[in-house]
Write a structure and sequence with these properties.
The chain is α/β, with parallel strands linked by helices. 41% of the residues lie in helices and 13% in strands. The protein has helices spanning 9-27, 42-46, 79-89, 103-117, 141-149, 166-175, 198-205, 238-244, 274-287, 293-303, 306-335, 361-370, 402-429; strands at 33-35, 96-98, 132-137, 153-160, 163-164, 179-184, 215-219, 251-256, 268-271, 341-343, 352-356, 373-375, 392-395. The strands form three sheets. An eight-stranded mixed sheet has the order 2-9-8-7-6-3-4-5, with helices on both faces. Strands 10-11-13 form a three-stranded antiparallel sheet, covered by helices on one side. Helix 1 (9-27) packs antiparallel against helix 13 (402-429), helix 7 (198-205) crosses helix 8 and helix 11 crosses helix 13. 44% of the residues are buried.
Length: 430
C-alpha cells in the first residue's frame, strides 16, 4: 500500500474519481445504518430475557435479611445486591451504596451535591468563583455534558496508551485549587478501549491535589466487558490503592449493570470510603426512601453471584466479538498503510476510536451520512463538542447486525478515503 501522501496530485485525482463512483453506487442503495450510540443489540438484550421470569406473583420476595422487597425501606440497597455489585466493582460490600437504574444519574447527583453542599465540609462548589474539571480526551460526551451543565470549566488532558497524561494531571491538580475533579473511564475506555496501567492507577492514588475536596470520578462502566477470553486487560483496584496511599476519600467509583442486563433497567452503584458514603447516605435519605428493591432482587436471583455474571458476559462477548472484528478487519484491509488514519484494536468495551487526518473528522461524518450511515457527531468525544484537531471519530459497532456492520464499515472507509484525498489535494494547492 502506498501512503496517500506519497501519491502525486494526478494519481490522487484518478483515485478520487474511482472512489466517487464506488460511493455513488452505495449511495444509490438508500441505506439506513447507524454506528452512533453504544447500545447493546436486540440479540444481547435477548440474553437476559429469563431475568423477566425469576420473579412472579408466587415468588418469595423477602430478601436475605428478612426485608420485604415489595415495601418501603432499605436506603442503600439489599444486602445480596450490595454483595453482587461489590464483587463486580472489586470492593468490600460495606463500601457500596446501590442507587437506581443509572450510574450516569449517580454521577450527576454526586456533582449536584458537591455544588450545593460541598464535599466533606468544604465550601459548596456553587459558591466558588471558579470550578474546574480535568477531562481526558477523547472521552465520554455525557460526562462532559454534566460538567458543562453545572458551569464547570473543562480542561483537556490528552490520553496516552496507558491512560491520561499523568505528568499533566499531577502538575495541574497540585497547582490549581479550583480543579475539583477528573473524569475517568479506566477500563476499556470510551471511546479508545484503553485500560489504565498499574503505574497510572498508582499515580492517581498518590496525587497531591491543592483542593482538599478534589475527587477522582472513576467510571468503571466496562469493568467486566471483555471481548476475548484469552486477551483481557487488568485494572488495579483504585479504592484500596487510595487507602494504602493515605488518600482514602479521594475517589468515587461508579458502575452499573446497564450493558450486562438491560440498559435503563439495570442497577447502579457508587463505591467509596466510609466517610464519603456516610455523607452520601445523609443527603440521599432526603431524596428517596429507597430505590427499586424488586429489581435488585431480580438481578441477584438471576445472576446468583459474580461467577454467574462473568459467564453471562461471555455470551455478550460472543455477540460483540465478530462485530468488532468485522470493523477492524475492514479498517486494516482498506486503510492499512495509507497513513490517513489510525485506530486502536480494543480488548473490550463498546467502541473503536478512529483518528483521521487533522481537519477531516467532521467532513468524514458528513460524507458517511450522505450514504445513509449515521456516526457519532465529530467533536462529541471532546468537552464542549470541540475537537481542536477535528480528527477523532467514535465508532460504535454493537447495535447493527454483522451484515449491516460490514456495509457500514465499507461506507466509513470510503468516506475516510475521499475526504482525505480532498484534504491532500487542498493542501497541495496552497
Ligand atoms: C463510560 C460510560 N459511563 C456510563 C454510561 C451510562 O451508564 P448508565 O446506563 O449506568 O447510566 C455509559 C454508556 O454508554 C458509558 O459509556
Amino acid at each position: 500500500m502506498t501512503a496517500y501522501k506519497d501519491l502525486s496530485g494526478e494519481e490522487l485525482k484518478v483515485l478520487k474519481s474511482q472512489l466517487e463512483k464506488e460511493f455513488d453506487e452505495v449511495k444509490a442503495k438508500n441505506l439506513k445504518l447507524d454506528m452512533s450510540r453504544g447500545k447493546p443489540s436486540a440479540a444481547q438484550l435477548n440474553l437476559s430475557m429469563e431475568m423477566m421470569d425469576v420473579l412472579n406473583s408466587s415468588s418469595d420476595l423477602i430478601g436475605e435479611d428478612g426485608v420485604d422487597c415489595r415495601n418501603y425501606g432499605v436506603l442503600d440497597g439489599i444486602t445480596e445486591a450490595k454483595q453482587l455489585l461489590a464483587d463486580m466493582m472489586e470492593v468490600p460490600k460495606d463500601n457500596i451504596v446501590i442507587f437506581g437504574n443509572s450510574s450516569l444519574n449517580i454521577m450527576y447527583d454526586t456533582i449536584a451535591r458537591a455544588m450545593t453542599h460541598g464535599v466533606l465540609g468544604s465550601t459548596p462548589w456553587a459558591k466558588l468563583d471558579k470550578v474546574k474539571f480535568l477531562c481526558p480526551v477523547p472521552g465520554y460526551d455525557r460526562h462532559f455534558a454534566i460538567t458543562e451543565h453545572f458551569g464547570i470549566e473543562m480542561i483537556n488532558v490528552p490520553m496516552t496508551a496507558t491512560g491520561p497524561d499523568m505528568d499533566m494531571v499531577e502538575k495541574l491538580v497540585a497547582e490549581d485549587e479550583a480543579i475539583k475533579g477528573i473524569w475517568c473511564v479506566p477500563k476499556y475506555s470510551n471511546p479508545q478501549g484503553i485500560t489504565y496501567s498499574d503505574e497510572t492507577v498508582h499515580r492517581f492514588a498518590t496525587l497531591k491535589p491543592a483542593a482538599k475536596d478534589f475527587r477522582i470520578f472513576w467510571d468503571n462502566a466496562y469493568g467486566i466487558h471483555h471481548l476475548y477470553e484469552d486477551k483481557q486487560d487488568y485494572l488495579t483496584e483504585i479504592l484500596m490503592e487510595c487507602k494504602k496511599a493515605g488518600n482514602p476519600d479521594m475517589v468515587y467509583k461508579f458502575s452499573s449493570t446497564s450493558k450486562i442486563s438491560f440498559p435503563g433497567s439495570g442497577i447502579a452503584a457508587i463505591a467509596a470510603s466510609d466517610a464519603n458514603l456516610k455523607e452520601i447516605r445523609e443527603m440521599m435519605k432526603v431524596q428517596t426512601i429507597g430505590h427499586d428493591k424488586l429489581n435488585q432482587l431480580r438481578h441477584v436471583r438471576y445472576f446468583k453471584d459474580i461467577h454467574g455474571m462473568v459467564e453471562h458476559m461471555k455470551k455478550h462477548a460472543d455477540i460483540m466479538r465478530p462485530k468488532f472484528d468485522a470493523v477492524l478487519e475492514t479498517l486494516d484491509r482498506e486503510l492499512g498503510g495509507l497513513e490517513i488514519g489510525s485506530w486502536i484494536a480494543p480488548r473490550g468495551g463498546y467502541f473503536i476510536s478512529f483518528d483521521a487526518m487533522e481537519g477531516c473528522a467532521k467532513a468524514i461524518v458528513a460524507k458517511a451520512k450522505e450514504a445513509g450511515l449515521v456516526m457519532t457527531g465529530a467533536g462529541a468525544t471532546f468537552p464542549y463538542g470541540k475537537d481542536p484537531k477535528d480528527s477523532n471519530i467514535r465508532i460504535a459497532p454493537s447495535y447493527p447486525t454483522p451484515e449491516e456492520l460490514k456495509t457500514a464499515a465499507e461506507i466509513f472507509v470510503l468516506s475516510v478515503k475521499l475526504v482525505s484525498i480532498e484534504k491532500l489535494l487542498e493542501n497541495a494547492d496552497r
